[in-house]
């Protein structure tokens, strides 16, 4: 069976045959009318209103109004006052933490030397398990823990880090010192001065004080001087207890103790003088009052005993403990009198440090309060500016949002809709008038809206011109194709007549080859009609058996002898579909024979699915495609892109996609499942076929719309069975799930561009050229 596509001669043929008198037929020439509304019949833009309305302000004016007050306030108040207040707060906070560290360091140092003094008598008497010793050492350990806690919270400055490191380096000496304190292992004043080595680095922290004082250096010197006086007094207390309880041992050790005792008494006097010099007059009066009160407390605690100064002079004489006891200087009276002075020094030290902490707290509080006040002022000014800016920006942002929404609507809906209509219908049937964006301002936004309207109009005008040009080109294609088709049909008729008269087998074979070449030329001409969006006249008015359709498609292929058709169910193809289906299958068969070895066969089979659809399979044994190529090709077949210039070089796929799209036929490619090759799957909707021999369609219990005008009539069970059957045959139904009606898609893309194969003549209709 040959496709019945005979058409009467067109005007070109009539001229070629001798003029219009031959046949007397003059078909109308295909032309395209200009689009409606192209003359500029557009609606007028809305009225702009008053030029003094906020919506009509210039963009620069709006920006100045928004930014002026916040910028000035931020620069003047935020940049100067808030920053200054914040810096002072940070400095005061650091000073507060330093003062807390100094308090902890003085407490730790005080605990060390107090431990040395109160443990002297029990340890000298050999009572190492005394509760006094345990309590004193526990108090020292607690003070050490508090010191390191404050050190971790202190600012990380070089000077503080050096002082803390000095304490950490001296501390390892403490435990060995405790183990051998006041024993023969540490003769003389080794024990007393061993504690000094650990305690002395702690005294240096007082030099970090001074915030809020008129003389920073003097403030630290005052604390250091009183701490040094207290340390010297403590050394005298411990050495004196040593001399009264267990002097020596030995004359040399006693001489060392006496020398040290006198030296530390002298050092105490120097430290007291330094305190008076570095401190204020109030500090000097405070020291004098504390010493007088300490003397009164000592006299009250030890009636009849000499005063502290007398005891110091008597101990300096080197008298024995017995001789000193006769003079009223006993370990008890000495320790009590020395402790009253020691406590007086400690009270002054604590007061000075506490004042430094309180002063730092006050300064930090003031700085923090100033920062908060300044921040509130700045924030209030900024909020006021933002409120004013918001009122001004509200009108501007409203227009900008409206312009953005309108632009998005034009870009995403209105313009694509017009372009789509122009591509699907004749330009003269499409209204190309542009509705202006409803922004009525005279400011820059309004000007942009008007400019965008103009751009919209130009885009629509260009699209209309392109559609008109495309219509003219399609008309040219249609006219040329009509001319060629008439000539080719006459040529085929002449070839058929020659074939019927020829008896020479060799000449007959040449005529058959010529017949196939002419058939290919006819198909190429029909490809031009498909490219132009035209449908050739359908000459079939009766259904045709599917096997005859397959045979007709095979007959249009040059290597028809390699094609095997088998397993075709009894079915008929509806008359309106016959020509296009033969054309579609011929393109796929031409491709299969071209891209496979001449020694191989191309197998064609067909299967009826439970839902009434029929799937045609075309198997070749070529070198096949990669998975990426299959994915790209099937995507283009399922979602064909728009027509472009490459169509002329890859006509085959475009024609297959367009013809499949026209009738809702689904086409996929997959590997053949053999050693090599490709299988083309063509799924025919049930609405395109009739049950063989009956002329009637199946009537299952449920109907579903099929793309391209057919119907898929399936029950739920049939649908599931059909899906399983299609999947077993390699057809991927998931590509079409949720894709909507494929008849609405645009064909396009490449067909079978197999790596390493020469281009197929059936796909490449003609070489580019004039």
Structure characterization notes:
- With 770 residues, the chain is mainly alpha-helical.
- It folds into 3 domains: 81-377, no CATH class; 425-537; 540-744, Histidine kinase-like ATPase, C-terminal domain (Heat Shock Protein 90, 2-Layer Sandwich).
- It is 61% helix and 6% strand.
- It is built from 20 helices and 10 strands.
- The chain has helices at residues 11-16, 59-118, 120-124, 131-153, 158-170, 174-180, 190-203, 216-245, 251-278, 281-301, 308-316, 321-326, 331-424, 444-501, 505-531, 546-555, 575-594, 627-638, 651-663, 716-728, and strands at residues 544-545, 563-565, 571-573, 602-608, 614-619, 666-671, 678-684, 689-691, 703-705, 711-713.
- The protein has a 5-stranded mixed β-sheet. The protein has a 3-stranded antiparallel β-sheet with strand order 1-3-8. A two-stranded antiparallel ribbon has the order 9-10.
- Helix 2 (59-118) runs antiparallel to helix 7 (190-203), helix 7 runs antiparallel to helix 8 (216-245) and helix 8 packs antiparallel against helix 9 (251-278).
- The longest helix is centred in the middle third of the chain and has 94 residues, at 331-424.
- The radius of gyration is 55 Å and the shape is elongated.
- Mean pLDDT is 78; it is low at 5-32, 211-215, 694-715 and 738-770.
List keywords for this structure.
single chain, 770 residues, mainly alpha, Heat Shock Protein 90, 3 domains, five-stranded mixed sheet, three-stranded antiparallel sheet, elongated, disordered C terminus
Secondary structure blueprint with pairings:
Elements: H1 11-16, H2 59-118, H3 120-124, H4 131-153, H5 158-170, H6 174-180, H7 190-203, H8 216-245, H9 251-278, H10 281-301, H11 308-316, H12 321-326, H13 331-424, H14 444-501, H15 505-531, E1 544-545, H16 546-555, E2 563-565, E3 571-573, H17 575-594, E4 602-608, E5 614-619, H18 627-638, H19 651-663, E6 666-671, E7 678-684, E8 689-691, E9 703-705, E10 711-713, H20 716-728
Parallel strand pairs: 2-4
Antiparallel strand pairs: 1-3, 3-8, 4-5, 5-7, 6-7, 9-10
